[in-house]
């Protein structure tokens, strides 16, 4: 499998969780409750899986490999991707603070929870779209088969050290559970 395909598959997991929190945010906006653990666990998923693991693979391995192949770091698509990762971190921080307050019973946290969640959903969907359709296409054009397989191995190491064995499966199971809840809304 190509290294870029690993990242595309991870995008599918992230998009599934984005759809769940988007539905939760809309429900909260209508004044209806959502399970507090859903939002706090989603924040944990976005921090660990989406940021530490997935963005870690992009920032630590893929982007430097592309820069080495002559794609500029500043000004071009890589610079845009890096800036968007930072914007995403700010939304997740806001979401995390609001989700903790909501879980503690503070309904005053709902507007901040809704706005940070929907802001993150919009940002990350557009971001993933650009990576899948622009940056990864460029990557597949410039990286040799051996560079793709070196990246694949580097991704495996990040996987083991940053989130550890079994965590991927745990997240998939969690997404499945929350999809069932969201399907009832
Ligand atoms: Fe990214
Ligand atoms: Fe990505």
Describe this protein's structure:
This protein has 185 residues and is mainly α. The protein has one domain (3-183): Up-down Bundle (Four Helix Bundle (Hemerythrin (Met), subunit A)). Helix content is 84%, strand content 0%. The protein is built from six helices and no strands. The longest helix has 33 residues, at 36-68. The protein is elongated and about 50 Å long. The model has no long low-confidence stretch (mean pLDDT 95). The structure holds fe (ii) ion (2 copies). Residues 7, 11, 54, 58, 128, 131 line the site of one fe (ii) ion (FE2).
Give the SSE layout.
Blueprint: H1 3-29, H2 36-68, H3 77-103, H4 110-142, H5 145-163, H6 167-183
Helix pairs in contact: 1-2, 1-4, 1-6, 2-3, 2-5, 3-4
What characteristic shape results from the CA principal axes?
elongated
Cα gyration radius (Å)? 17 Å
Give the biggest sheet: none
Integer count of domains: 1
Throw out a few tags for this protein.
mainly alpha; binds fe (ii) ion
Question: Quick gist of this model?
Answer:
Helix 1 (3-29) packs parallel to helix 6 and helix 3 packs antiparallel against helix 4. 84% of the residues lie in helices and 0% in strands. It contains 6 helices and no strands.
């Amino acid at each position: 499998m190509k290294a870029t395909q690993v990242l595309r598959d991870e995008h599918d997991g992230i998009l599934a969780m984005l759809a769940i929190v988007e539905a939760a945010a809309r429900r909260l906006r209508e004044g209806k409750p959502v399970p507090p653990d859903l939002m706090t666990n989603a924040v944990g998923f976005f921090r660990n899986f989406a940021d530490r693991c997935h963005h870690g693979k992009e920032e630590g391995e893929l982007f430097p490999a592309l820069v080495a192949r002559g794609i500029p770091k500043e000004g071009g698509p890589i610079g845009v991707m890096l800036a968007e990762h930072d914007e995403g971190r700010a939304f997740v921080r806001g979401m995390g603070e609001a989700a903790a307050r909501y879980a503690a019973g503070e309904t005053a946290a709902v507007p901040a929870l809704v706005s940070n969640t929907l802001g993150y959903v919009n940002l990350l969907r557009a971001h993933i779209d650009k990576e899948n359709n622009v940056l990864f296409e460029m990557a597949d054009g410039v990286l040799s088969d051996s560079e793709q397989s070196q990246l694949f191995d580097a991704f495996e190491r990040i996987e083991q050290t940053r989130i550890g064995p079994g965590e991927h499966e745990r997240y998939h199971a969690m997404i499945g559970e929350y999809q069932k809840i969201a399907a009832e809304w």
